[in-house]
Amino acid sequence: MNIVLVHGFISSGKIFFYIKKKLEAQGHKCFAPTLKPIDAKHGIEDLAIKLNAYIKNNLELDSKFVLVGFSLGGIVCRYYLQELNGIKRVDKLFTISSPHHGSYMSYLYPGKGIKQLRPNSGFINMLEEEENLLDGLKIYSYRALFDLMIVPNSSSVWNIAINKRFFSIMHSSMLINSKLVREIIREL
User: Which of 185, 180, 89 is nearest to 137 (CA)?
Assistant: First the structure.
């Protein structure tokens, strides 16, 4: 199975080193692009367009794949699926610590993409209004028990997803959580 891993804010595809290693050991082929600018200053749409181009250039035309998005990356995946017609090629979507309903922490950074992650922003509301475009897609939303980046923590609960909570002491430590990785492998 082809799996595309989409990183979050001020990060790169390298952040998936642990998950990628575990998935590849199971025989999956992983792609972990670095979408720039990494601070999303041009908006989430910009990163989703770059994700779309990466997929077109690196995966076989019309091949099915799985998307895994971490934090902001989960929202980039949603835009790709809902607005760029990625839904036609994706078998499953896994989001990890993604602020589906926004995060109050997004008030601390001025870039366009982060402003789009504010609770009740026009961008977040648009994604929620068009969730029906994801009908039929198997969706998982995983969140940390304690996550100081997703405020409130309940923002990672997505009503159309299978939601699970994992014990993790920090936002990014979700990506090295062995229970979470085993869960993804089981659901693939």
Answer: 89
Residues 94-117 have pLDDT tens digits of 999 999 999 999 999 989 999 999
Tokens of 161: 């997803």
Query: For residues 112 and 87, what is the distance between their CA atoms, to the nearest angstrom?
Result: 25
* Residue extents of the structural domains in the chain: 2-187
Bond prior to 37 in cis (omega within 30° of 0): yes
Model-level pTM? Answer: 0.97
- pLDDT score of 145 more than 90: no
Q: What is the CA radius of gyration of the chain?
A: 15
| Residue whose structure tokens are 């699970």 | 164
Tell me: the pLDDT tens digits for 48-81?
999 999 999 999 988 999 999 999 999 999 999 9
- How many CA atoms lie within 13 Å of 132's alpha carbon, on the beta-carbon side? 2
Q: CA-to-CA distance for 133 and 87, rounded, in angstroms?
A: 8
Evaluate whether 141 touches 163 at the Cβ level (below 8 Å).
yes
Residue 26: band (very low, low, confident or very high) from pLDDT cuts 50, 70, 90: very high
Enter the CATH code of domain 2-187.
3.40.50.1820
Q: What is the Cα–Cα distance from 107 to 130, expressed in whole angstroms?
A: 24
